[in-house]
Design goal:
By secondary structure, this protein is α/β, with parallel strands linked by helices. It has a single domain, classed as Glycosidases (TIM Barrel, Alpha-Beta Barrel). About 50% of the residues lie in helices and about 15% in strands. It is built from 12 helices and 9 strands. Helix 10 runs parallel beside helix 11 and helix 11 crosses helix 12. About 40% of the residues are buried.
Amino acid sequence: MKKILLPILCLLWFPLAFALQESRQGIYINEGTMNNADYLQSLITRGKAVGINTFIIDYQYGGQRYQQNIKLVLQNGIKYVARIVVFPNGGTDAQVLSHAYWEKKYRLVQRAIALGASEIQLDYIRYDTTQRPSPRNAQNIYNVIKWFKNKLKPQGIPLEIDVFGVSSFGDSIYIGQSLTLFADSVDAVCPMVYPSHYEPYLKYAKEPYEAVFSSLTALRHQFLGNIPFNVYPFIETYNYRYPLSNPARVEYILRQLQAVDDSRVEGYYVWNPSNNYNNLFIALKNRSHSS
């Protein structure tokens, strides 16, 4: 009897454990918004009402007003993840191989942590798309990630990296992103699974669920079902290549959110460069009413 019960209990425990772990639900915040206390407060209020618990906030300049508004975010119980752009528009060998360049970016990391960042997210942690393809590219990017991880680990600060959605399907020898190579040096991976970035775009503009779900399923297959880091995919609030009405944008968001849920990852982040999340908040409110 005990031999029969044990597998059953394990099966029951898995969904329970997943449910007990707080799902990460975050939105991207630029520095312009961080300098606008009224709009920031609006995002905090509306976001918390629909379950948003994390802000991924740009850190580059971080003036006095920015610092004051970080306190507003933290006082409202929202997790502050600092987004650091490492190689704007992608790196060259001169940048990727430069320890002095890494140190310059790490100084931004230190300042963000001092302000209260509980996690660091590295974006544009890749080569420029025009660089010559080579397996060496991923190794060089890995060395940068590993260096940052070694700096952060003693401080107990988790490290996230943003990667192209295509990296979910396998290594890219152009931009130098390999999730299987990076796995031992990251705590979370944030694949940018925007349907607008997939070809043929006319197909995926109308199939946002399929774009997101197939990407996250492929990522899991790379690790034979056992991903060794958290996954917080970035989804988008609109498709810049395919015009949608506001009601259609709400449905577009809902389909992506459903794909994230069905993929059984640890949460999601939402990207809107201008920080207009009205349709997202409507979508999340609709989801809460329908559940």
